[in-house]
Amino acid sequence: MAKEMIAMLLAGGQGSRLYALTEKLAKPAVPFGGKYRIIDFPLSNCINSGIDTVGILTQYQPLVLNEYIGNGQPWDLDRLYGGVHVLPPYQKASGSDWYKGTANAIYQNISFIERYDPEYVIILSGDQICKQDYSDFLRFHMEKGAEFSVAVMEVPWDEASRFGLMVADENDRITEFQEKPKNPKSNLASMGIYIFNWDILRKYLEEDEQDPTSENDFGNNIIPNLLRDNRKMYAYHFNGYWKDVGTISSLWEANMEVMDPEHSGINLFDNNWKIYSRNSGMTGHKISASADVHDSMITDGCRIKGTVKHSVLFAGVKVAEGAVVEDAVVMGGTTIERGAVVRHCIIAENVTIKENAVVGAMPEGDEHGVATVGSGITIGEGAVIGPKAMVRNNVKGGEEQW
Which residues are annotated as a binding site? Predict the structure, then answer.
């Protein structure tokens, strides 16, 4: 039975600009918003949009990501026909290759796509925070009679040169593509979300694979080749929330925005478009009489005895009496001991911050540095970590003490 559209989710990115947070973790598996991981967003968008077949292409540090995805049950993707499938690189008779680029990753999984004989394929990124109805995008693609469509967002003109840009006419037909140009002709930034007619996608993937000079990339190769051949290419305007959380500061900022849905545009409390995630299995959180909690997200299993202000606390975080957490993102299993102060920073999973230690500081003037502590690290008693510091775990095996 053929599927109308299946999704191919690119989730193999290293996320190198997140430094300490992705040393042992694929970027799509990075925790976000108290109870989620980044990959929850495209997976939830798929099931909410009626897409029940998703191939997830993994590569870098896939262990935690694979374990988290499991059989796809949290997203209603545990299907007998379709569902979620993890697709790592594998050895073939012709040789063994890592995914060499985004286009090559899809090319290596042509046989998976063929199993479902879809009319359309949507290609998604596993490292963005976005709530999007892909069925609306597909309707646009079909109404235009498109062979390729790309989701775009208008960005400020003074930032346009940071993006891949689509130049389109009054009917949204794409006439030119600019990759991070010095002199932009458009402010329509590509979101890296594409819909292809499957026959067109297959043709261009196979041609690209035969080109020894190709970088095997959608932005650098496939899209320019479609333009060269004057294919029917259209830009779909998306007006919702979208953020590429590729840096420490953007990840911190997006976490802060979930606490202000009326102004930020990202509403995790919307029952009409739920973001699903794997249940932590922990008990409810407990806020003691000594605690002072304001404007924060406190999730399962947290034990709060100290002060928490404008912060996101993931499952199982413990804040001792006399400790202060402010403007911080504190990931699961972290313990903040008595008298410790944690401000304007991101603390990764399973960190211990000992008594009277200080991590980060509230910004002054134009100073906006976000301190970061990598997973599994212990910040020693009385230690002081500055506002732009990054504590990384460079010890192989065992725990690192700072």
Answer: 99, 164, 179-180, 190
Query: What are the beta bridge partners of residue 359?
Result: 342, 385
- Stretch (H or E) spanning 130: strand 128-130
Characterize the bridge pairing of strands 242-244 and 324-326.
unpaired
Q: Which residues contact 25 (CB under 8 A, 6 or more apart)?
A: 61, 64, 65, 375
The whole-angstrom separation of Cα 66 and Cα 124 is: 17
Cβ-based neighbour number of residue 237 at 10 Å: 12
- What is the distance between the alpha carbons of residues 72 and 137, in angstroms, rounded to a whole number? 24
Taking a C-beta distance cutoff of 8 angstroms, is the pair 343, 373 a contact? no
For the whole model, what pTM was predicted?
A: 0.92
**pLDDT tens digits along 39-95:** 999 999 999 999 999 999 998 888 899 999 999 999 999 998 999 999 988 766 555
Q: Which residues of 279-290 are buried (b: 16+ CB within 10 A; e: fewer)?
A: eeeeeebeeeee
Binding site, annotated residues for alpha-D-glucose 1-phosphate: 99, 164, 179-180, 190
Q: How far is CA 281 from the centre of its chain?
A: 23
Q: What's the CA angle centered on 80, arms 77 and 83, to 5 degrees?
A: 25
Residue 219 DSSP label: I
Q: Which amino acid is at 144?
A: K
Contact partners, residue 351, CB within 8 Å, separation at least 6: 331, 334, 335, 373, 374, 375, 376, 377, 378, 379
The Cβ of residue 300 has, within 10 Å, a number of other Cβ atoms equal to 18
Query: What are the residues whose beta carbons fall under 8 Å from the beta carbon of 44, sequence distance 6 or more?
Result: 75, 273, 274, 275, 276
Nearest 10 degrees: CA dihedral of 215, 45, 266, 287? -110
Query: For residues 159 and 376, what is the distance between their CA atoms, to the nearest angstrom?
Result: 37
